[in-house]
Design goal:
Blueprint lengths: L38 E2 L2 E2 L2 H15 L7 E5 L6 H11 L6 E5 L10 H11 L1 E25 L7 E11 L4 E6 L1 H9 L6 E6 L5 E7 L13 E2 L7 E11 H8 L8 H6 L11 H16 L3 E5 L1 E5 L6 H12 L5 E6 L3 E3 L9 E3 L4 H4 L2 E5 L5 H14 L3 E2 L1 H13 L2 H17 L4 E2 L1 H10 L3 H11 L4
Parallel strand pairs: 3-14, 3-17, 4-13, 9-10, 13-14, 18-19
Antiparallel strand pairs: 1-2, 5-6, 5-8, 5-11, 5-12, 6-7, 8-9, 15-16
The protein binds adenosine-5'-triphosphate and magnesium ion.
Length: 460
């Protein structure tokens, strides 16, 4: 019997901590009329941009954004990345968000257009719903049966595993293949867990711990689930979220099959093989077949390309074409530049806004972000301090906010952690003005570092 392992949702297509600076952002913070409250969803101020992003979310939900993309333009640290993240959050849970910077597309191994396509596909989710025949229940017995090793030697092998499953309606004992025993061990199944085993693939999934075993701890990592109702052997709808890129990678190996099952089966065996256009179109074919059959549903997500001025002509033309595709994700570009030359254009003297060629600018909905005033800066810093669990004195907060207005919000936010270390070292619970001043001496902001450079004409 084949053993098929499922997609581990935590592993499939999630980028690590790139957005940790934005953990306080929970959405755009709009009311039901699309109007932004001054402080909501983790955001402070920047109301026009938030409302504009809200309209974009509505356009996507009503499927009227195809062929268009978004540009968020504004000075550094005015919340461009935060807005893009919030848009993906507003689109719904499990909507893929794929953040990259322009320069990531250049590598010696992969063509830049291919790298762009890869990121496009990382931003397109596929929700697969399958009704499968399963055995589900609380494990009441788990006994491996040993046998003499048929190859001789002293060791013993496992010939079967006996699993007893219980539901509200009855119990069943299953005698299973040793390969399933391995999956049971991988999922760390023990007596008292609720699991299901797919009957034709043998895949095992641990649902949680049966709530009959619930303990009285207030906080515990374990998830308790009720005893399943119905028979042990039944049909069950199983939902999995993957991205098209996951499927590409899974099938970049020659043994990749033609149906979703074998496509998914390959998911946990990563191996670097080139993903060709041919392979992608084959995956597309299978995917559209499953969409037609109602088994799968496309979930277009958000591809966020920061520092868009790093893209060149070749990528822009490709981007233009990719936007036309019927399954494109929402592409959000961001830039903090003004007029610059377009990389790779014939005439380097011609400048274009944000380094984007005019024909693409034409397709863009442009959202502008504005610098924050003193009050807004102050609230953002104090929210961030709360999140990072640091206490800050009122006058120190004022000082930091002033600093933020004069230099940049990000600079002030970045001083928060070192300042808290200084205060802790000095044995104080709260950051005071002195800590901020000390930090300022230790770490330069961009204006001051430029000043030092121009004055001394050497190095910092
Ligand atoms: N309106 C806001 N409310 C709350 N936090 C904000 C707001 N704007 C920005 N921030 C926070 O400030 C920090 C800087 O913002 P962000 O990274 O989004 O700026 P950016 O415009 O993308 O800057 P850059 O041009 O340098 O990429 C982040 O931690 C972000 O979460
Ligand atoms: Mg940014």
């Amino acid at each position: 019997m084949v053993q098929i392992s499922e997609v581990n949702e935590n592993q499939a297509s999630q980028r690590e901590n790139r957005t940790a600076a934005h953990t306080h952002i929970k959405g755009l913070g709009l009311n039901e009329h699309g109007v932004a409250k001054n402080i909501d969803g983790g955001f402070v101020g920047q109301k026009d941009a938030r409302e504009a992003c809200g309209i974009i979310v509505d356009l996507i939900k009503s499927k009227r954004m195809s062929g268009k993309a978004v540009l968020i333009a504004g000075p550094p640290a005015t919340g461009k990345t935060a807005l893009a993240l919030a848009v993906s959050q507003e689109l719904g849970p499990k909507v893929p968000f794929c953040p990259i910077v322009g320069s990531e597309l250049y590598s010696a191994e992969v063509k830049k257009t291919s790298a762009l396509m890869e990121n496009f596909r990382k931003a397109i989710g596929l929700r697969i719903k399958e009704t499968k025949e399963v055995y589900e229940g609380e494990v009441i017995e788990l006994t491996p049966e040993e046998a003499e090793n048929p190859l001789g030697g002293y060791g013993k092998t496992i010939s079967h595993v006996i699993v007893g499953l219980r539901t509200a309606k009855g119990t069943k004992n299953l005698r299973l293949d040793p390969s399933i025993y391995e999956s049971l061990q991988k999922e760390r199944v023990t007596v008292g867990d609720v699991i299901y085993i797919e009957s034709n693939t043998g895949a095992v999934k641990r649902v949680g711990r049966s709530d009959a075993y619930a303990t009285e701890f207030d906080l515990e990592a374990e998830e308790y689930v009720p005893l399943p109702k119905g028979e042990v052997h039944k049909k069950k709808e199983i939902v999995q979220d993957v991205t098209l890129h996951d499927l590409d990678v899974a099938n970049a190996r020659p043994q990749g099959g033609q149906d979703v099952l074998s496509m998914m089966g390959q998911l946990l065996k990563p191996k670097k093989t080139e993903i060709t256009d041919k392979l992608r179109s084959e995956v597309n074919k299978v995917v559209s077949k499953y969409i037609d059959q109602g088994v799968a549903e496309l979930i277009p997500g958000v591809l966020f390309i920061d520092e868009v001025n790093m893209l060149d002509m070749e990528i822009f033309t490709y981007l233009n074409k990719a936007l036309e595709s019927s399954i494109a994700p929402l592409v959000i570009l961001a830039s903090n530049r003004g007029l610059t030359t377009v990389k790779g254009s014939d005439d380097p003297d011609i400048k274009a806004p944000h380094g984007i060629p005019p024909d693409l600018v034409d397709r863009l909905l442009i959202v502008r972000t504005l610098p924050y005033n003193f009050d807004e800066t102050k609230i953002i810093i104090s929210k961030r301090a709360q999140l990072e669990n640091v206490l800050i004195a009122v006058d120190a907060l004022t000082k930091l906010a002033e600093k933020g207005v004069n230099t940049s919000l990000r600079y002030s936010l970045q001083l928060l952690t070192p300042a808290s270390i200084l205060s802790t070292t000095a044995g104080r619970a709260e950051i005071n003005v002195q800590d901020i001043e000390d930090c300022e001496l230790l770490f330069l902001d961009s204006t001051r570092s430029t000043k030092v450079l121009t004055e001394t004409k050497t190095f910092l």
